[in-house]
Specification:
337 residues, 5-stranded mixed β-sheet, 27 strands
Amino acid sequence: KQWYQRRVRGYNERQPTGTGGEIKQEAWCFNVHTATWSLLTTDSENFPLSAASCAVIAYGSSIFVFGGSGASFGYSNSDQLYILDMKTLKWRVVHLEGGSIEGGYGHSISICNGYLYIYGGCDGFHYFNTMNKICLKRWHNTGIYRHGHEGRYRHESIEHDGKIMIFGGGCPTPIEDLGTIPYFCTKTDTWHVMKAKSAHNPPGRVAHSCNKIAGYVIVTGGQAQMETMMGETNFALSDMWLFDLEYSTWSPLQVQLPQGIFFHSGAVAGDHCLYTFGGSTYNDRGTVQRLNVLYKINFYVPSLVELAWTVFHEEFKHLSRLKMVEIGVPTYLIHRV
């Protein structure tokens, strides 16, 4: 099971480098059992230099990172694919054969049946509508498939049953409707559209997070727009919605985030919990504020072992591993700390 959440990339315009902000060249690991962060000591030789708003996916013991922007944001874009080996903590650059992928930021990334799928994105001026299909064995871009509609960025993609489903995003306006879900069929390499069958659908959004757990897709937060007397106004969303993959219906969750967030990241860990980290929000003055907050939501009632471990670790986290062995804590639990 995957007991760790990884964070790669970052951007903070309030920490200038002289060229428009600081790109966080860091990789962090969060232990979901001890609730502690660790800064990973990875090699710096091949660390992605332009990683703000890049596309990231975990696959086996590796983390794939594509694209992103550097400082100044939007003017220093990457078209490189990087892989971080979590066993050796070594980065490597993958040199692709075949068609090139548009460099930029705000792409989505998915893996299905030995292929890597990269869709959309933006270079700061143009919004892409292409799906790139990359063979993981030969590192060859086997095809570039254009979607018939306008390009989009800061959308999310989820793989299900051989389909790469695209949720939300925009260019940046208009923001795409979540009642209409384009998907790329990996079996036929063709685009299709799925219509939600629910009476009420979530509002369209960009810069949200999208995760799959069991037979559902969870959409969390994001940035939406509304018409005011001053024109279109952006605002941050705190809502959470479930999309039933079997029945193609949306339903809102009763729980919401403590505040509206966008440009955050989300991940589902081996404990069947959703973790949402970072991003931005609007403060009382209406200006953007960066966040370093981690939220956790349980989607299933934990087992008695997990509940007991949570209480035990909170009360006795000062104990050494040897002492835990002496008092009879199971070995597989001790290995978590």
